[in-house]
Amino acid sequence: MADLVQQPQTNQPIHGSRALKEPTWVKWTFISIAILFLILFLVLPLVAIFYKAFEQGIATYLASITEPDALSAIRLTLLVAIIVVPLNTIFGIAAAWLVSKYRFRGKSFLVTLIDLPFSVSPVIAGLVFILLFSAHGLFGPFLMEQGWKIIFSVPGIILATLFVTVPFVARELIPLMQAQGTSEEEASVSLGANGWRTFLHVTLPNIKWGLLYGMILCNARAIGEFGAVSVVSGKIRGLTNTMPLHVEILYNEYQFTAAFAVASLMSLLALVTIFIKNMIEWKVNRQRVV
User: Fold this and answer.
1) I need a surface site. Which of 51, 196, 208, 261 has the fewest CB within 10 A?
2) Would you tell me how many other CB atoms lie within 10 Å of the CB of residue 241?
3) For position 218, what pLDDT does the model report?
4) Are 122 and 225 in contact (CB under 8 A)?
5) What is the pLDDT of residue 277?
6) Is 220 exposed, middle or buried (0-12, 13-18, 19+ CB in 10 A)?
7) pLDDT of residue 16
């Protein structure tokens, strides 16, 4: 036994930095490919959008984004986002709470339904709403008799956008709340707190950054949604055109400067969204380190 203990170990561990070290040319090759990809598919398109938007001067740019149809498209896009994001936030929190905190039959089916908009084409979703709520659809005649017009109006745009953005908040919160478990909520209840107080003072602080992250993604998709909205809106100028639809119409009419001017506003919104998203990620990573 002593001899066995005194025998030198032959399988020495490889030093971590040595094992992971790659040749310099490999590292710089991958870095160059990544930078080239970003320049070609991200930086250059953004530069081209803003160049074309300001090609005829600042006065033309301002006129393009302040003319009545453009303002109507901007207002409608923001209105849809203001309505859709809170509704999906409420649904996402409720669905995540249900999936992560309770055991029940059909949980897997519920999660599958939440993921359904990811697998269904937005155009198909728009056609489904046409079949349900158009003048010749399943519920359309009854709703129109009651004075409710869904298709080719703002309610249809809201419904279509709501459908395609349903998963974002829920799918961000479900794995987060599952990883946190139920121990803190159970401790809160055992100390006499009711469900609402437990949610406000225990659950919500633990999920706040994930919740904000999901809301930002939901908002970005709501602003940029094209396929489903294009089917149900009717593309009526000044009434049912969102910003993506307005850009398409202007481009098809060869009003390139105006089209790129409105597109630049959407690009600015996207950049702001990315900035906020990165700030949240930085904040979360900093808290984890601390």
Assistant:
1) 196
2) 26
3) 93
4) yes
5) 79
6) buried
7) 47
166: tokens are 């349903």
Give residue 105's pLDDT.
Answer: 87
DSSP secondary-structure letter at 153? S
pLDDT at position 169 is: 94
pLDDT tens, position by position, 54-71: 999 999 999 999 999 999
Instruction: Answer positive or negative: Cα dihedral of 255, 256, 259, 261.
Output: negative
pLDDT of residue 20: 55
Residues of the chain scoring pLDDT < 70: 1-21, 287-290
Q: Report the first-to-last Cα separation within the chain, whole angstroms.
A: 47
Alpha-carbon span 62 to 257, nearest angstrom: 11
The DSSP annotation for 73-131 comes to HHHHHHHHHHHHHHHHHHHHHHHHHHHHH---TTHHHHHHHHHHHHHS-HHHHHHHHHH
Q: What is the pLDDT of residue 5?
A: 45
Can you tell me the distance from the alpha carbon of 262 to that of 254, in angstroms, rounded to the nearest whole number?
Answer: 14
| Contact by Cβ (8 Å): 111, 280 | no
Instruction: State CA 22 to chain mean position distance.
Output: 36
Q: Do the beta carbons of residue 52 and residue 133 sit within 8 Å?
A: no
The Cα–Cα gap between 183 and 198 comes to 12
pLDDT for the residue 51: 93
- The owner of tokens 């930002």 is 216
- DSSP-assigned letters across all residues of 118-145: HHS-HHHHHHHHHHHHSTTSSSHHHHHH
Task: Give dist(CA 222, CA 98) in Å, integer.
Answer: 25
154, two tokens: 């703002």
Do the Cβ atoms of 73 and 265 come closer than 8 Å? no
**CA torsion sign, 253 to 249 to 71 to 52?**
negative
